Amino acid sequence: MERIPLIKPSVGQDEAEEVRKVLESGWLAQGPRTREFEAKLASYLGAKHVVAVNSCTSALALALESLELKPGTEVVVPDFTFPATGNVVSRAGLKTVIADVDLDTYAVTVETLKRAVSPKTSAIMPVYPFGFAIDLDGIDEFAEARGIAVVEDAATALGTSYHGRRVGSGGRAVCFSFHPRKALTTGEGGCIATDDQRVFELASSLRNHGQVSKDGKPSFVYNGANYRMSDINAAVGLVQLSKFDRILASRRKRAQLYDRLVRETKMDVHLQKGLPDTVSTYQSYVLRLGARFRTPRDSCIKGLLEEKGVETQVGTYSLSVQPSFRTARHGKLANGPKLFDTTLTLPLFDSMTDQQQEFVIDSLSRLA
Q1: CA-based torsion, 18, 20, 21, 25: positive or negative
Q2: Would you place residue 65 in the very low, low, confident or very high pLDDT band (cuts 50, 70, 90)?
Q3: Domain spanning 13-99+106-242 has what CATH number?
């Protein structure tokens, strides 16, 4: 029985060769390759600055700190997201507030944010669900009118376009992930893209123990930490960036084939809905099982793997039902918990074949 994995990173000999060069150079930590990666990524995004770090979680934490939010104030996050989104808030000495999401787009909206913000809100952290764009213009306008900062958790959205521009251009704090499940990977890694000079300077210092150099002389101005990206990771990222457009085109082609195959089966499933004039990276292909779908989601995951060799998993998590967020403030949350119970992530990777995708959908349809 052929096993179809959930992911398979698009890495090979080119990445290995660049890593070899770094190892032979003797400079393994943050250095020239990291600076090159930052510059090329900033150019790709259309951002003034990129600060590369060792994970998107670190990027989110640095973003919150670099925005200099008042301790004890509230940050609104979506209910339907990976726990890292909420974890960085509480660890920064801020209070987590959970907002519901839209059932079709899986994202927070201006309407769900209206029900979550309060006079104590200092920031909103919208998430791009699985590479799909959010209503960024609406959210920015809503936040600006209230003096609220926006930190974009764009972990999945490198390459996503919104009204003709790439996500990451023009923002104060846009955070990306380069985990192996993402379309572009550095093994582990992340970054902040920003057009704000103060955010750039603070994040650059805080990732490196709070060090600031003046006239070639370093001093430690802030109580920072070590969130640096290594040149080993950056070397992988540079190769990935050189072939990123091809990777994205392949993923989008695969997602379109899934869309067609799913519709042809007439299963009771709902595809994630994108906003007009946007293009997704399809970091994951996630669908929602309908009320008439015969097999519960968790049983689908177990059955597909054990009987068909197809690896699947939940979409992502509902923060409001996780024990670690039991003290977070939230109102009535109808959609986040429902999505947590009913979404299913299907295998999607650059080297996947049409036949593998057909097998995945045929296997799922037998459980419908």
Answers
A1: positive
A2: very high
A3: 3.40.640.10
Say which CATH class 244-365 falls into. alpha beta
Q: Is the pLDDT of residue 2 over 90?
A: no
Query: Are the C-beta atoms of residues 335 and 100 closer than 8 Å to each other?
Result: yes
Q: Which residue has the tokens 């509230």?
A: 74
Residue 180 in contact with residue 156, Cβ under 8 Å?
Answer: no
Residue 131's pLDDT is 98
Amino acid at 98: I
Rounded alpha-carbon distances, angstroms, from residue 19 to 10, 16, 23: 15, 5, 6
Q: How far apart are CA 360 and CA 352, in angstroms?
A: 11
Break the chain into its structural domains and give their ranges. 13-99+106-242, 244-365
Q: Measure Cα distances from 196 to 1, 142, 146, 193, 351 in Å.
A: 52, 20, 19, 9, 38
Q: CB under 8 Å to 238, separation ≥6 — which residues?
A: 18, 33, 36, 37, 40
Q: Tokens at residue 283, please?
A: 């970091």
The pTM of this model reads: 0.96
pLDDT tens-digit readout, 207-232: 999 999 888 888 999 999 999 999 99
Q: Which of 222, 167, 173 is nearest to 50 (CA)?
A: 173
Residue with tokens 């995708």: 357
